[in-house]
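SUBJECT: A protein chain and its fold
Encoding: whole-number codes for local backbone shapes
Chain under study, with its fold:
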Amino acid sequence: MNKQAMVYFIFGIIILLLSSPLGYSLVNIVYRNQNLTGEFVPLLNGFIHSLMLIGILVFSIGVVTLLKDRK
């Protein structure tokens, strides 16, 4: 098995599992001194979904690399 493919595979799973707390932290960091009345939940959902998309892409890179090396 390719070590690099396994790193991508595991890192993608970790990003997927931690997307909610990471999204919450990123919203608080990016919009630190702003009043987000009524806009916090849509922003949080956007950050969470973008992190989930990144996790899926990293996971798929690991799977594709793993399948390529088996042939």
Q: What stands out?
A: The CA atoms of residues 9 and 40 lie 31 Å apart. The mean pLDDT is 92. The radius of gyration is 16 Å.
